[in-house]
Structures are given as C-alpha cells and as structure tokens.
Amino acid sequence: MDDYLILARSVTYAQRMQKALSRVGIRNRIYRAPRDLADLGCAYVVQVEPQALGRALPVLNGAGLGPLRVYGRQGAAFRELSL
Fold first, then answer.
1. How far apart are CA 8 and CA 64, in angstroms?
2. Is 81 exposed, middle or buried (0-12, 13-18, 19+ CB in 10 A)?
3. What is the pLDDT of residue 40?
4. Most Cβ neighbours (<10 Å): which of 6, 11, 18, 66?
C-alpha cells in the first residue's frame, strides 16, 4: 500500500485524530475524503504512512477517536480494511 486513509465523520473529528497522532510522533495529514469513500457527505480522512498504521489505531482507540473505516490506497485504487 502507498498509504492508509482513516475516515472521520467531520473535520473537527479529523482534527482531533490529527492532534492525538501528532502527540505521539505519527506523521499525518487531513483532507476531504475522496468521493468514492464518503457516503456521509462531509467526511474527512487522516492519511498515515503504511508503517504507522499499527501504532495509529491503538492511539486513536485509546483517545476515544475510533475511525469509521480504514482504507488502503494503492495508486488510485482504494481497499477497505477489516478491523
């Protein structure tokens, strides 16, 4: 995978996720979710590198910020991961 996209339900939720990850040194960025992934209307994603996903999910769950869904991105293709 090129990177992983952690789906958040709003920009505020994504910003909280971003802060929690940044506090523990996990590089990330947020942006509007691609249309293919967002059936919720105004969803956002937090992008993390492949090697960071294993650390990121426990951090988010521990902070009460569990993701809606997680997608792997390979080029222009997305694949939902089962958690």
1. 12
2. middle
3. 58
4. 6
Rounded Cα distance between 9 and 49, Å, is 20
SS3 assignment, position 9: coil
| Global confidence as pTM | 0.89
The Cα–Cα gap between 32 and 44 comes to 4
Q: Give tens-digit pLDDT for 31-62.
A: 998 877 766 567 899 999 999 999 999 999 99
3-state secondary structure 43-77: CEEEEECHHHHHHHHHHHHHCCCCCCEEEEEECCE
Instruction: Copy the structure tokens of residue 29.
Output: 């960025």
